[in-house]
Every structure is written in C-alpha cells, then in structure tokens.
Automatic annotation (TrEMBL):
Membrane-spanning residues: 440-457, 509-527, 547-568, 580-605, 611-632, 644-668
Subcellular location: Membrane
Domain of life: Bacteria
Keyword Endoplasmic reticulum applies: no
Membrane topology: Multi-pass membrane protein
Annotated Yip1 domain residues: 494-661
NHL repeats (start-end): 100-141
Full protein name: Yip1 domain-containing protein
Length: 687
C-alpha cells in the first residue's frame, strides 16, 4: 500500500512537471503569435535589414457593442481616443472606444455609401458620401449641420461628377476632398456662403516618356486621338497634421507616392521617398513629426518628416488569421499613446499595434530633438543604440544632436557610422574652419619658408654647383633602359603623336616599363578606392576586394590588348602586340600622375566643393581616352576613319569574347554539377 502511495506521488510530480512545461511552451507560442511579421529598416547604404520589433500586435476590434462592421472604408481617432468608423456597407458612422464599447451610431438612413470620415477639434463630424454625392456635417448627436454638394463654379468642370471618397478639414473649416476619377487634384471647398469652391490642391503630374513625346510629334491628329490619354493619377488618400500640412498617397507615383504639402501645394519631401510601396492605401501622422503609410496588403511604413524610412512591418494574411496581418487595408490612424490602428475592410476589423520599448525610446528622442532639447535627446538615442548599434537612423540623429551642441568631432564620428553624408560634410566644414583659424598663420609661414629655401638652394647651385653630384647621379640613372622607357611615357602623355612615332619606329616599345606603369596604376586605383575621403567613397566600410579589383584590371587590359591586336592585324595595322600593350599602358599615365591630387582633395573638400574633384576626374579620364585613340591611330598608321572603325570593332570583339567566356563558364558549371550528381548517385548505390 505504501509503495502504491509513493508511486502515486511520483506520477503526480511527473504530471505536474509536464503541465508546467506544456504551459511554458504555450506561453512562448503565444508571445510568438503576437508578432507574426518581421520589422525592417534601412542602413546608411540603403540596404534593407531586420531590426527589433517596432510595434507589437496588441488586439483586434471586430465590433462596437453588438454592432459589426460591413465593408468599412475609413476611420478617425480623436485626441481623447474615440474611434469613428465609416461603416460603408451599413451606410453609417460607428462611434466607439478602443475597448470596443459602442458610443453612438450616426447617419443611419441619411448616408448611402460613406467612404471617408473626419472629426474636427470642435467635434463636428465630416462624412464623404460617394453615392450620396455630398459631404455631410453632423454634430455629436447625429444632427445634420451642413451638406455640401457639387460646386457650381465653372472652374470645377462641367463634365465632372462629385464623388467624394476621403476628406480632411483644417482649423479654418476648409475642406480638402479626394473625389473618385477627378484627376485635377484635391477639391478645396470653403464653408463660406454654403460652400465656395477654392480650386484644386496638390495636383499630381503625369509622367511622359521620351517615346511618347516622339510619337505625339510625328503622328497625325487622328492617330494621336486614338492614343491612350496620359492623365495624372488621383490621390488615393490624405491626412492633415496639427500644422495644417496635407499628406497624400497615390498609387503608381513611385517615389512621389507620398507627399507632404504646404499651403501652396508644394511637396516638402524633396526628391520623394526612396522606400515606397507600390499600392499605398492610407496615410496619417504621428505625435513626433513622423508619418505612417499603410499599403493595401497590410505593410506599414513609418517615416520621419523628411521621408526617411524608420520602420516597415506587418504583412498580408495568408489565411492563418494571425493577429497583426491584414488583407485589404483602407485606413490607418495613431492615437495619443502612439498606438497604431489599421482598418481592414475585407476582414471587417481594426488591428491595434502598440509601440515596443525600442520604438518608445526612439519616439522620445525624436520629440526632444524636434523641441530643440538636443542634449536630452542623446540619452534615449544611446539606449536605442545599446539595443541595436546598427540602427543607423539613431546614429544619424545622435550625430545631428552633437552638431547642434557644436561638438563637431563626435558629430563627425556618428555621421560616418550612419553614412550621413550631409551631416558629415557639415561637421567636417566646421572642423576644417576651426583648423584654418588656428593654423593659417603657421601654414603660410611654412609655405614662405619652403619657397625661400628653394630659391636659396637654386641660387647657391647656380653659383657654386652644390647640386652637381645629385644631378649627375639622376642623369646617369635616367639613362638606364628601363628608367628611360618609363620617363618616355611622360613624353607620350604630353606629345602623343610624336610619342606614338617613338613607340612604332624608334624602339620605345617594351614589356617592363609599361608593366611598371600598369602596376602603379593598380596600386593607386586600390588606394583611391578604399582610402579616399568618406564623401567620395563608393564601397562599404570594412569591405575590401583588392585581389578581385587587381584581377579585373589585368583581365581587362589583357582583353583590350589582345582584341585590339587581332582587329589591327586583320585591318593591316602596323602595331605588334608589344607596341599595342605599350601605348595602352602609357595612356594610363594621366591617371597615375594626377589621381593623387584627386585623392588628397577627397580628404579636404566638403560636399559643396566636390565638383572640383569631379571636374579633375573628367579631365583625367578624357585625357586617357584621347591618348588611347591617338595611340591606335599613329602606331598603326591609320586614318581617322580607319581608327574609328577599328575602335568599334575592338569593342564589339571584347563583348563577343566576354559572351563566349560566360557561355563556357555556364556550360562547365552544368557539366561539373552533372558529374557531381553522377558521383553522388554512384556512392549512394554502392554505399
């Protein structure tokens, strides 16, 4: 009996341990289920990378009280957290709370297909009723205060219908309305005199390709009439912030899909957004000068006011019905606590996301920075970077905060970490300016001293010949064949026609001297590529592909030399492969001589002065091209026409050679894969 009791205790303990383990596992599954999506951001190079979860899927609202939604199209959240939903399928506006409590039903029996809703600070409810062809204004009790129909102004357009879909209202009561199929822009109506049409606002522009322009220029009137009309896109949705700025999203406008418009209709997001969704459905603003855009598929983008991406998260529901995924988003709103509300018309529900600790810290930093509290903004930014040191937007914000504090060394450091070229240039300009103030006198004294020393030595040499022995040694050194040929490349650079004659007729062609110049060229190319100034660097920090770079240069030089030799031989050219190799390598001398000056300038100049480097590089590359052309012409004794022909055939030959090498590579890879598969099968069969 005692044994049975002990056995019962052991079994009980094991069952209890199993239940605890199972419950722990279920809890972990529950946490994972809250975030069925990943969060991404961009680094300073524009690469998409995963980061900490920015927003957690908190809950889903499917009804208010006992009232379910049918094909909801829009919603608005007031500062006190009240939710207004345009319940399109039922022809009404549902008013409720974040916990699903029903407060009121507005417009029942008066509205046909409410597509947009907006609530002003004085609690007036504006509803865009598409099939009702009107904008209704209600009070909180559902009483109709005003009704605005199609403007009777001839400026509106006689043939245009009035089908309002979305609406926002500024503090003066001016309405901005998106109407279906109205490509003229957002309809702007003042409440004065029962509704005064003020004009069109934020009109999108139609893009016209060069091909279309040419077609329209050469076609007849009848043919042009049959072409598809190139009309601007109608905005899909809009929002307004506390400053009265209008935000619009438009499908098909690519980087201009998101716009931030001032009162004059000018887009304040210069250059547009680099990270955009192809089907944006809704837009709203946050509490920290940030912007949220939701795509119809359920992806949510958060930008700062300059249009720089902070996060993208969410996604399309694949049928698993997991919280946080959507199928057809029509509206997005943010409450005073930074919770995001996403309206899904297909699921007839509202997804609610709450910001994670990581996002709360970033928002706090953004708020402090926007208010001018730069020093205070650094603390939350440091906490963000402790969580994710690779979050480049935080590095950028930290650099800008240090810059405002005039700590330019730290600003430079963080700007480089974030690949913030503008911030780096500004900080570097200040550092350079301070250095010049502190050292300009000493620098001038050193320059004058060096100039005076040069003059004194030159004078003494002229009178007493103090440099006679060094000059004699240098002269003897230059007489060596290798050194003489290297020095001859300088003559070729300055006098390419005469220099080409020396290569062709006077035995100046060699293998060693051109190879030396090619070696110096490769060394300078690698140094300039990886060690140039930050503002001119085109490769990622810490990434070096030196052997690959050298291999590419060697292959290109060998291919150009061989192909040009074959073409010149066929076309009765007089150049041998040694001569052709010589003038190709000698043509690189302008790069060898002058690229070090460009390299130095990359460490001295700021962004506004970079055009000097670009100009110098254009001169260098142009000089190299001229030397190559004249080398081909003079060494092979061609006319200008024959030279052009040979150059074109050489380029074509190089392309054919590259194609053959690629085909051989692909075929060999397939053969190698087949042999590996056969070998694996044999090993498996005979184990």
């Amino acid at each position: 009996m005692k044994k049975n009791k002990n056995l019962f205790k052991i079994v009980s303990v094991l069952l209890l341990a199993f239940v605890i383990t199972l419950s722990t596992g279920l809890n972990s599954v529950s946490v994972s289920a809250n975030t069925p999506y990943r969060t991404f951001t961009n680094d300073g190079y524009g690469r998409t990378m995963e980061t900490q979860t920015a927003y957690l899927a908190q809950k889903t609202l499917i009804k208010f009280g006992n009232e379910f939604m049918s094909n909801p199209s829009d919603m608005y959240i007031t500062s006190d957290g009240t939710i207004y939903v345009a319940d399109t399928g039922h022809g009404r506006i549902l008013v409720g709370t974040a916990d699903g409590k029903l407060l009121n039903i507005i417009g029942k029996g008066k509205l046909k297909t409410p597509m947009g809703v907006f609530v002003t600070s004085d609690k007036k409810i504006y509803v865009a009723d598409k099939d009702g062809k009107a904008v209704f204004v209600f009070d909180q009790n559902g009483k109709v205060l005003n009704k605005y129909t199609k403007p009777d102004s001839p400026l509106y357009g006689e043939g245009l219908d009035f089908l309002p879909q979305k609406i926002v209202v500024n503090d003066a009561g001016v309405m901005y309305i998106v109407c279906q199929s109205n490509t003229n822009g957002i309809v702007e109506i003042s409440p004065e005199e029962g509704g005064t049409f003020l004009g069109y606002f934020g009109t999108n522009y139609a893009s016209v390709s060069l091909q279309t322009i040419i077609y329209r220029a050469i076609l007849t009137d009848e043919q042009r009439a049959k072409m598809v009309s190139n009309m601007p896109s109608t905005p899909d949705n809009l929002s307004i912030d506390t400053k009265g700025l209008i935000y619009t999203v438009t499908r098909g406008d690519e980087n201009m899909s998101l716009k931030r418009l001032n009162i004059a209709g000018t887009n304040l997001i210069k250059g547009g957004v680099s990270d955009y969704d192809e089907s944006p459905a809704a837009v709203t603003t946050g509490n920290h000068d940030n912007i949220y855009v939701a795509s119809s598929q359920g992806y949510i983008y958060e930008y700062n006011k300059q249009g720089e991406l902070l996060y993208v998260f969410g996604g399309t529901d694949d049928g698993t019905q997991r919280v946080g995924l959507s199928t057809q988003v029509t509206s997005i709103q943010v409450d005073s606590k930074d919770n995001i509300y996403v309206l899904d018309s297909d699921k007839k529900q509202i997804q609610v996301y709450e910001p994670s600790e990581f996002t709360q810290l970033l928002h706090k930093a953004l708020y402090l920075y926007s208010k001018g509290h730069y020093t205070e903004s650094k603390k939350p930014l440091q906490q963000v970077l402790q969580m994710n040191s690779m979050f480049d937007y935080a590095n950028k914000a930290m650099g800008r905060a240090y810059f405002q504090e005039e700590n330019y060394d730290m600003a430079l450091k963080y700007a480089r970490l974030a690949k913030d070229y503008e911030g780096y240039s500004d900080a570097f300009w200040e550092i350079r300016n301070e250095w010049l103030k502190d050292n300009i006198v000493a620098a001038l004294v050193i320059i004058v001293a060096l100039w005076a020393a040069f003059k004194i030595v030159k004078s003494l040499d002229k009178k007493k010949g103090i440099l006679a022995k060094p000059k004699a040694a240098i002269a003897n050194f230059k007489q060596k064949t290798f050194v003489a040929n290297v020095c001859y490349s300088k003559y070729f650079m300055k006098h390419p026609i005469d220099g080409s004659y020396g290569i062709a007729r006077e035995g100046r062609a060699s293998w060693s001297a051109p190879s030396f110049i090619l070696l110096v060229f490769m060394i300078e190319y690698v140094i300039n590529k990886y060690l140039c100034g930050f503002l001119q660097k085109t490769v990622r920090e810490g990434r070096y592909e030196i052997f690959s770079d050298i291999g590419k240069i060697v292959i290109v030089m060998a291919a150009i030399t061989l192909c040009n030799y074959l073409v010149c031989t066929i076309n009765e050219g007089e150049g041998t492969i040694k001569k052709i190799y010589t003038y190709f390598c000698y043509s690189l001398l302008p790069y060898v001589v002058y690229i070090p000056f460009s390299f130095i300038l990359t460490h001295i100049l700021t962004t506004n002065e970079q055009f000097l480097i670009t100009l110098l590089q254009y001169v260098i590359y142009g000089w190299v091209i001229v030397l190559v052309i004249l080398g081909i012409k003079e060494v092979n004794n061609y006319t200008a026409k024959e030279t052009a022909k040979v150059i074109c055939i050489t380029i074509f030959t190089i392309l054919i050679m590259a194609l053959l090498i690629f085909i051989i590579y692909v075929l060999w890879a397939q053969v190698f894969e087949f042999i590996s598969a056969v070998f694996g099968e044999v090993v498996y069969r005979f184990g």
